[in-house]
TrEMBL record, chain A:
<dbReference type="InterPro" id="IPR035906">
    <property type="entry name" value="MetI-like_sf"/>
</dbReference>
<keyword id="KW-0813">Transport</keyword>
<keyword id="KW-1003">Cell membrane</keyword>
<feature type="transmembrane region" description="Helical">
    <location>
        <begin position="319"/>
        <end position="339"/>
    </location>
</feature>
<feature type="transmembrane region" description="Helical">
    <location>
        <begin position="121"/>
        <end position="142"/>
    </location>
</feature>
<feature type="transmembrane region" description="Helical">
    <location>
        <begin position="351"/>
        <end position="372"/>
    </location>
</feature>
<feature type="transmembrane region" description="Helical">
    <location>
        <begin position="480"/>
        <end position="498"/>
    </location>
</feature>
UniProtKB/TrEMBL annotation, chain B:
<dbReference type="InterPro" id="IPR005948">
    <property type="entry name" value="ThiB-like"/>
</dbReference>
<protein>
    <submittedName>
        <fullName>ABC thiamine transporter, periplasmic substrate-binding protein</fullName>
    </submittedName>
</protein>
<feature type="signal peptide">
    <location>
        <begin position="1"/>
        <end position="22"/>
    </location>
</feature>
<dbReference type="Pfam" id="PF13531">
    <property type="entry name" value="SBP_bac_11"/>
</dbReference>
<dbReference type="InterPro" id="IPR005967">
    <property type="entry name" value="ThiB"/>
</dbReference>
<comment type="similarity">
    <text>Belongs to the bacterial solute-binding protein 1 family.</text>
</comment>
<dbReference type="GO" id="GO:0015888">
    <property type="term" value="P:thiamine transport"/>
</dbReference>
UniProtKB/TrEMBL annotation, chain C:
<dbReference type="GO" id="GO:0005524">
    <property type="term" value="F:ATP binding"/>
</dbReference>
<dbReference type="InterPro" id="IPR050093">
    <property type="entry name" value="ABC_SmlMolc_Importer"/>
</dbReference>
<keyword id="KW-1278">Translocase</keyword>
<dbReference type="InterPro" id="IPR027417">
    <property type="entry name" value="P-loop_NTPase"/>
</dbReference>
<keyword id="KW-0472">Membrane</keyword>
<keyword id="KW-0813">Transport</keyword>
<feature type="domain" description="ABC transporter">
    <location>
        <begin position="2"/>
        <end position="230"/>
    </location>
</feature>
Length: 509, 329, 230
């Protein structure tokens, strides 16, 4: 009888979390499909959207990975002051609400932005950020930090002894150690970013430049909004699921990425280093690319802060509550799934990546509506949906850590006769504080900026900060909206930083 | 630490229940987001109506006009809304098709450039679509001239926003047989297509475009609220397509008297005087005090274009295909 | 008596049979080449591996269906014997009762157990602040406190230097041995067995041989043992 060393963690919470994920992904899709009046299949325009979606996701993921490899390599082998802070800050774009990031990108790459001002000064023709390349640029901006983090993790997972061995043999480190690592790590990183770009919505919506740049998610939005064609929306969501499944199946055979998050604050001593200038140049360039738009959000936002009406601060408070609740729920679910383990759980955990946020929202609306006025549930549903959508990232961080704890201590725990909850409380939780904090921070930041679900549900009294910012824009108050964007930026980063630090503090691991 | 983390969760769920007292009747008005916001007409209108109705007026805000219709279709006959406010003529046909609405009983002297006799949908404000640009810059005199120029504009997507749909109808009404060509010529002027009005207007103010599709009344906001006269609406020879925003009573309402009372109130001075400086549109009935100072500076199109709801619905899909094909090249 | 009754353990294509009795209150050394299945046998006794067939009996009670934590058995492994995030006292206290908080009486017991292994006053430290030998002592203190009749030692002192290792072995004898525990100790070093074991048993070629008095075990070695000792 083959068996796991010991199955001591409680199992029902994992089942409950998996069920919740299934209801919110497959269940909501079914609800939309069931309510649909089927009026025929997809149009040629829909298939054009599928093509565009796949191509832009391929290019975005490819460029993100290509750009990330040299930067991760440089970060893995150079030690300098502020390196840890740089790595933490580099996570910022990924956490940024899209609306806010677009403001920053426009300030740099837009018609009146810094790049075009410089080009004009040099007498060169202006570039336009709108269109296919704009979508790719924004996706690279969002996802390069994630790629750097994941690939850096791969580099640091090569044991220091191997580098020592390679050095003593005078063997080429690149072919011997780095290439095999990249081959193992890069496909998984590519897949994650590909999936993120595949379901992209708001970026294509604002920077796409027109109907040419219609993604599948955008087509779903239009099917729901314009044609009220639930059947087509459900079909498109199925196509999106299908694309994700195909992509996942291709990469499934190649090994997937290890944990992200913890343990990036060390470098490996190396004996094969030349050209430090190139390394620092790479790091510098990426830092400028990532931080200039952020700086512009701050620059534009500061004058608007004074103009913010009190209502915006109340909305900010509501957003914080949503973020905290969502982070709690997300990490609890990730922990429950990780403790249960197994392949089904692994699949459930990545399901939300493939789901259409709009279909989830609409389906949730249809599920809730017969029972209770959706406006009353605006905040809880926002919490729930965002927790589920952030789950794949939290699960990635927590799952590895839980597996490590089980590998090292399951026997000791079992032989001590720890109860199931005792095992979780005394051993697992304290030992996975870092990834737990990281996952919570991620979930908090991602749900802080949510402008998907809330717009569908929100009534008069439940506006969150992103919604308030949007409403400010709708009332011609662009300067105040820039101030609200700054507040949103600060809150998202603060939420992440607090959780992440909370996980690190006073930890003897 | 372990215990305290549950508190925000509980607080979060407690927030969601909004209190309704049992005695006061509640009138629920479903409308678009910017109407409800602190800077929109909503709060002042609720206060004014509640003074006379002895009721509690609650707004359900959702996206823009198009989202409003989608929400209504999602909810179907079981909707809790008593009044739906904020659809425009291009959405009326689809709204009527839901069969959710009852005839209104209001007879009012509407100050519209066109005649209005819809039995169910009653206008509360209106405006002309127009491109808004910077004063002193090159200003084209027609859609055709704009298409032939190098001027950079930003427009909204007709599939997700009412101004975007309005432009679609504008082009189709002005050029019934050659809309596709006009769109093809306009394509190189269009910087980007945004999902809604707010994004487009934001991009214009950020300097991403020379002009934005908006309303002839938009400069009034800058003039009155910001004392800034640098924004102008361009008058076009072909005429300007109108947006007429309407409200209607939901047939299944549990507050039919209150709903009728609200619709009557809607075309009264108390409601109409709030509209110009909060919704930045023309009131459907000019209030006794006239329009606010500043509105007289706005351009008045020589020709008002508007399709009936049925006509608009009939040409929508053709017009959309022309638009999509031209802009997908 | 701890009895392996026609016990068969299978892992992939590895197979180990054991049909032996370990006497109560004795220290028995399990000797054999690496990969012979010494640790596998301990894992089966502790309940981490379900046997393919056969039973494990303690005082006529069938342990086979009993989960690890409920067996009258404690164990010290090759590594990961202490939770790094808990203090030494908390770690040792887990032997008494698997909870965070102990009563004052229980804390007294922990302190006494720590004293008996020479760690008096070090209870507040985390394992990382202790030397390797001290960490082994802490694990031993927990086993002492756990008060379970059978103790499995899976080469817990292999990483220690010779002097330190002998010191620990003596400590095992003076604590566990004196307390009358039934101790099974895996080792590949005959000197360890000679030093403290009452009996020794050879694990080789897929079988566990019956334990023999240590002196006899080495003076009249079986052919298999001779082959191993070289």
């Amino acid at each position: 009888m083959a068996q796991r060393a010991v199955a001591i963690a409680p199992r029902w919470p994992g089942a409950a979390a998996a069920a919740l994920v299934l209801v919110l992904t497959i269940g909501t899709l079914a609800a939309v499909g069931w309510r649909a009046a089927w009026q025929g299949g997809l149009t040629p325009a829909d298939w054009a959207a599928v093509r565009f979606t796949v191509i832009q996701a391929l290019v975005s993921a490819g460029l993100s990975v290509l750009l990330a490899i040299p930067v991760a390599r440089a970060l893995a082998r150079r030690q300098f002051r502020g390196r840890a802070a740089l790595i933490t800050l580099m996570g910022a774009p990924f956490l940024l609400p899209v609306v806010v990031a677009v403001i920053g990108l426009l300030a740099v790459f837009g018609r009146a932005g810094m790049v075009n001002s410089a080009l004009a000064w040099l007498g060169l023709p202006a570039i336009s950020i709108f269109g296919f390349h704009g979508v790719v640029l924004a996706h690279v901006f969002f996802n390069v930090p994630l790629a750097i983090r994941l690939i850096l993790q791969g580099w640091l997972s090569i044991p220091a002894e191997r580098f020592r061995l390679a050095a003593s043999l005078n063997a080429p480190v690149g072919r011997l150690l780095e290439w095999p690592m990249l081959r193992a790590v890069v496909p998984g990183v590519f897949l994650v970013i590909f999936l993120i770009c595949l379901t992209s919505f708001a970026v294509a919506l604002t920077l796409g430049g027109g109907p040419r740049a219609t993604t599948v998610e955008l087509a779903i939005y239009q099917a729901l909004r314009f044609d009220f064609d639930l059947g087509r929306a459900a079909l498109l969501a199925c196509v999106q699921f299908g694309l994700c499944v195909v992509a996942a199946a291709i990469v499934w055979r190649m090994s997937l990425v290890d944990a992200m998050g913890a343990g990036l604050d060390r470098t490996v001593q190396r004996w094969d280093l030349r050209w430090p200038v190139l390394d620092y140049l790479m790091i510098g360039l990426v830092a400028v690319f990532l931080f200039t738009p952020l700086g512009m959000v701050v620059w534009r936002g500061v004058p608007g802060l004074a103009l913010l009406p009190a209502e915006v601060w109340a909305a900010a408070g509501r957003s914080v509550i949503v973020a905290v609740a969502s982070a709690l729920l997300c990490t609890s679910m990730a922990l429950a799934l990780a403790l249960r383990g197994g392949r089904m759980v692994a699949i459930t955990g990545v399901l939300p990546l493939a789901a259409s946020g709009l279909v989830v929202g609409t389906g949730a609306f249809l599920l809730v509506y017969p029972l209770i006025n959706p406006a009353r549930l605006a905040l809880p549903v926002t919490v729930l949906v965002n927790a589920v959508l952030a789950l794949p990232f939290a699960l990635r961080a927590i799952g590895q850590a839980v597996a490590g704890v089980e590998r090292d201590f399951a026997r000791l725990g079992a032989s001590l006769g720890l109860s199931r909850w005792g095992w979780v409380g005394i051993v697992v939780l304290p030992r996975i504080r870092r990834p737990l904090g990281f996952g919570a921070g991620l979930a908090a930041a991602l749900s802080m900026g949510d402008l998907g679900v809330i717009t569908l549900f929100a009534g008069e009294a439940q506006q969150t900060l992103p919604l308030a910012m949007y409403r400010l824009m709708g009332a011609y108050r662009m300067e105040a909206a820039a101030g609200a964007a700054l507040v949103l930026l600060a809150l998202s980063l603060a939420a992440f930083w607090i959780c992440d630090q909370g996980g690190r503090g006073n930890a003897d691991l | 630490m372990q215990k305290s983390i549950y508190l925000p969760l509980v607080a979060g769920f407690a927030l969601c229940a909004s209190g309704t007292s049992a005695q006061t009747p509640v009138l629920q008005v479903m409308t678009y987001d910017s109407f409800v916001s602190e800077w929109g007409p909503g709060p002042a209108i609720a206060a004014a109506f509640e003074q006379t109705c002895g009721c509690d007026l609650q707004f359900i805000g959702t996206g823009d006009g198009a989202a409003l219709l989608a929400r209504l279709q999602l909810e179907g006959p079981r909707t809790e809304a008593d009044i739906v406010l904020g659809l425009d003529t291009n959405l009326i046909a689809a709204a009527r098709e839901t069969g959710l609405f009852a005839p209104h009983r209001v007879t009012a002297d509407l100050d519209l450039p066109i005649t209005w006799d819809d039995p169910e949908f009653l206008p509360f404000d209106w405006g002309y679509f127009a491109f808004v640009g910077n004063a002193g810059a090159e200003a084209p005199i027609s859609l055709r001239a704009l298409a032939d120029s190098d001027i950079r504009i930003v427009i909204q997507d007709p599939r997700s926003s009412t101004p975007g749909l309005g432009l679609l109808m504008w082009v189709k009404t002005a050029y019934p047989d050659s809309a596709a060509e006009l769109w093809a010529d306009l394509a190189d002027n269009i910087v980007t297509v945004t999902p809604g009005w707010s994004e487009a207007y934001g991009l214009f103010l950020e300097g991403e475009a020379d002009a934005v599709l908006s309303y002839t009344t938009s400069p009034a906001y800058h003039l009155i609220a910001e004392e800034d006269d640098s924004k102008v609406a361009w008058a076009f020879d072909e005429g300007h397509y109108m947006q007429v925003e309407v409200a209607a009573k939901v047939a299944g309402t549990d507050q039919p008297e209150l709903a009728d009372q609200f619709l009557a109130f809607m075309v009264s001075d108390a409601f109409q005087s709030i509209i110009p400086e909060t919704n930045w549109m023309y009131p459907a009935v000019v209030p006794e005090g006239g329009l606010p100072a500043g509105f007289e500076t706005l351009i008045t199109p020589a020709t008002a274009l508007l399709l009936s709801p049925e006509e608009a619905a009939a040409i929508r899909d053709v017009a959309l295909d022309e638009w999509r094909n031209a802009l997908s090249q | 008596m701890l009895i392996c009754e026609a016990l068969v353990i299978e892992q992939d294509d590895f197979r180990l049979t054991a049909d032996v009795t370990f006497d109560k209150g004795k220290i028995t050394a399990l000797i054999g080449p690496s990969g012979a299945g010494k640790s596998t046998l301990l894992a089966a006794l502790a309940g981490f591996l379900a046997p393919a067939s056969g039973r494990v009996l303690w005082r006529d009670m069938d342990l086979t269906p009993v989960p690890p934590g409920a067996r009258p058995i404690s164990a010290i492994f090759q590594d990961n014997n202490l939770f790094p995030h808990l203090t030494i006292a908390q770690n040792v206290g887990l032997g008494l009762r698997p909870t965070w908080h102990l009563t004052a009486d229980e804390r007294g017991c922990v302190e006494r157990a720590l004293s008996s292994v020479g760690l008096a006053g070090l209870g507040a430290r985390k394992p990382a602040a202790l030397s390797g030998g001290q960490q082994s002592r802490a694990a031993l203190a927990r086993v002492l406190l756990a008060d379970r009749p059978v103790v499995l030692l899976d080469e817990p002192f292999a990483a220690l230097g010779p002097g330190l290792k002998d010191e620990m072995l003596d400590l095992v004898q003076s604590t566990l041995g004196v307390a009358g525990r039934t101790v099974l100790m895996v080792t590949h070093d005959p000197d360890d067995a000679r030093r403290i074991a009452d009996q020794a048993s050879l694990v080789a070629a897929g079988t566990v041989s019956a334990p023999v008095e240590t002196r006899v075990f080495f003076e009249a070695p079986s052919p298999a043992l001779s082959a191993y000792l070289g």
